[in-house]
Design a protein that fits this description.
The chain is mostly helical and 144 residues long. The protein is built from six helices and three strands. α3 packs across α4.
């Protein structure tokens, strides 16, 4: 997830200043009043900086802003891994039968990109809907 979200750069800020750090955690303006974004200058990142980035991405936020998105642990408590990844990236699981369905600010190919990374393949977007539906970006396993 770190490679997909930030390419391992702890100082990445995206989405108009709303997404921070290794796992691109999003904090609303209200949440930023009580929660410091987990980011750092790459030349001066400390263990504590990286730890906070990972904690925010895994467990969510301690701030009181609304909305404060939950971390990946929340999504894994509700869904199997593919749907959990869709929830983490999108903030919901819009279509449990097609993990490519995303919101305008999320990444359609997020789940298949991560599946490809885990299989040692480059992330990519697949041009054909049926191919995506049948393969979901994962390298097919041989059986028998």
């Amino acid at each position: 997830m770190v490679l997909q979200e930030s390419n391992g750069n702890g100082n990445v800020v995206k989405d108009g200043g709303m997404s921070y750090g290794l796992l691109q955690v999003q904090l609303s303006e209200k949440a930023k009043e009580t929660e410091e974004p987990a980011t750092c200058d790459p030349s001066g990142c400390t263990y504590d900086n990286y730890l906070k980035m990972l904690q925010q991405g895994v467990y969510g936020h301690s701030g009181t802003g609304n909305p404060i998105p939950p971390g990946i642990a929340y999504w894994l408590g509700l869904y199997r891994p593919g749907a959990a990844l869709r929830g983490y990236n999108t903030g919901s699981v819009p279509d449990e039968s097609d993990y490519q369905v995303a919101t305008p600010i999320s990444t359609e190919s997020y789940v298949s990109d991560l599946g490809n990374r885990l299989g040692g393949l480059p992330p990519q977007q697949f041009p054909d809907y049926n191919w995506k539906l049948n393969n979901c970006g994962f390298k097919l396993a041989r059986t028998g």
